[in-house]
């Protein structure tokens, strides 16, 4: 069952009544996992760029869509311009939005969807 995002504020996200004060990945199974920012940070020195290694970690077989909450001010970006699919050509597509817009997209999404939410900038 897909969890519902109850709300966000700078530095946290509330999902099904639980507050998380770190970036999260919402899995196809409905589980909430901590984002492995080190996969991108070791390459770029920041977690504001999603590396190919992190994209591979986020992707799951069967996913049809990825919704990225790019932070309060939309500062998280993919490696290349044009916001490519996170699946690296495996059929999924992604939405990159400021977190408030991504939250609405997540809550209304149907089907096999994964979420990645950055909780700060």
Please describe what this structure looks like.
The chain is of the alpha/beta class and 121 residues long. The chain has a single domain (5-117), classed as MTH938-like (Hypothetical Protein Mth938, Chain: A), CATH 3.40.1230. The protein is 20% helix and 31% strand. It has helices spanning 38-44, 52-58, 99-108, and strands spanning 5-9, 12-15, 18-20, 24-26, 32-34, 49-50, 65-69, 77-78, 93-97, 113-117. The radius of gyration is 13 Å and the shape is globular. The N and C termini lie far apart (29 Å). 32% of the residues are buried. The mean pLDDT is 83.
Please summarize what this structure is:
This protein is of the alpha/beta class and 121 residues long. It is built from three helices and ten strands. 20% of the residues lie in helices and 31% in strands.
From the structure above, extract its key features.
alpha/beta; single chain; Hypothetical Protein Mth938, Chain: A; three-stranded antiparallel sheet; 3 helices; five-stranded mixed sheet; 121 residues
Mean pLDDT: 83
Helix-strand category: alpha/beta
Q: Architecture, according to CATH? A: 3-Layer(aba) Sandwich
Assess the beta-strand content as a share of residues: 25-35%
CATH fold node name? Hypothetical Protein Mth938, Chain: A
What's the tally of helices? 3
Approximate shape: globular
Q: Could you give the order of strands across the largest sheet?
A: 5-4-10-7-9
Order of helices and strands: EEEEEHEHEEEHE
């Amino acid at each position: 069952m897909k969890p519902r995002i109850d709300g966000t504020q700078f530095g946290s996200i509330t999902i099904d009544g639980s507050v998380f004060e770190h970036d999260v990945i919402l899995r196809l199974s409905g589980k909430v996992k901590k984002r492995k920012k080190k996969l991108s940070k070791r390459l770029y020195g920041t977690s504001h760029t999603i590396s190919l290694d992190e994209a591979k970690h986020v992707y799951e077989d069967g996913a049809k869509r990825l919704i990225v909450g790019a932070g309060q001010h939309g500062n998280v970006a993919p490696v290349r311009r044009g916001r490519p699919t996170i699946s690296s050509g495996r059929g999924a597509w992604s939405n990159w939005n400021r977190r408030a817009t991504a939250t609405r997209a997540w809550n209304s999404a149907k089907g096999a969807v994964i979420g990645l939410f950055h909780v700060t900038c």
